[in-house]
Design goal:
The structure is a homodimer. In chain A, helix 4 runs parallel beside helix 6 and helix 7 runs antiparallel to helix 8. Helices cover 80% and strands 0% of the residues of chain A. Chain A contains eight helices and no strands.
Chain lengths: 204, 204
Amino acid sequence: MNQGDDKIALILSASQKRFGRYGLSKTTMNEIAADVNMSKASLYYYFKDKESIFLAVNAKEQNDFTEKIRQVIQAERTAKKMLFDYTVYRLKLLQKQLSLAKLNNENYHEVKPLIHSLINTFKKTEVSIITDILKKGVERKEFKIRDVNSYAELFIDIQRGLRQHRFSGYIDKGIYVIPARVYHKLKEQSELFTAIFLKGLCNN
Amino acid sequence: MNQGDDKIALILSASQKRFGRYGLSKTTMNEIAADVNMSKASLYYYFKDKESIFLAVNAKEQNDFTEKIRQVIQAERTAKKMLFDYTVYRLKLLQKQLSLAKLNNENYHEVKPLIHSLINTFKKTEVSIITDILKKGVERKEFKIRDVNSYAELFIDIQRGLRQHRFSGYIDKGIYVIPARVYHKLKEQSELFTAIFLKGLCNN
């Protein structure tokens, strides 16, 4: 890691805390600069605005998740357990994403197209992780399925659809603060679905 | 059926054809009145505006579906087949709903709150139908599940979530004309999910 990477890591980590506490709309470049003991000019050298920092923080969360889940998968013995781990860690990532995204209506519309491109790229990563898990399950004779890719895409689309459906009343209005009971309902459904899905794939 | 009901049935059936062909935004009360050989004043006696007719047409589609699916369920021998029938008929209803809803952006925002209340009521009906199917499956020892209601709600939420996820790029922009390939992808996923769900519930 060179000095620039070091600075960037510092900025991202400080911004992550600030976004998590105050959200994007209530955070300023001045505050981030102060947090990392940097002049405003130096901060602007690395990021042109707080929206770019916000996206970089989100991308970092996604990469951390991918790395973590790859390790977890390596350590597990059954594909069944891997898929369950996936669901649990994905929900934890969701909580972090929600915490970062305390966006107000105005900001939401600004960053929405950028977030969408992040989401689409991440979806491909997610489908490829699930595809790997399902392939392992087939190799180990845990699952009896043919078109592994369709199953992986369906799994991810259902998890995303459940989130979208559960949160739609909130996110439509640009409110990203999801009440705890709504999150818990989603968690319950997400886990029940994973259990049914696994049973539906099983070899007996 | 009294004469008023007769007239209403006539108005709804004519409007249904017109909405299906031209959408809400391109239909006028004048045209509907002409279609049913009625003066504009008489039409306004039954419905205050075209949006009210639109909602009544949608409500009628939902009731027709509920009636039809109850008949189909009566005729089927296995709960498994009932759930599959449900998925197939629900997709047909969706096609009708999409065809009626050629809304432009402006109209969409007008009728959205009204449509949402229709959607929420209909969701309860859907969950109760699926609950009945699952209960029959448990009685007949096809399924081995305890909390039938959670499974029924999850089934409906997943089907709704899949639709929402698949259509979000279009409906966000108020465009209700869904390309055929997008509909077919949804149909594929909806049916594959039903198959996995059924296998996940089975008793062996």
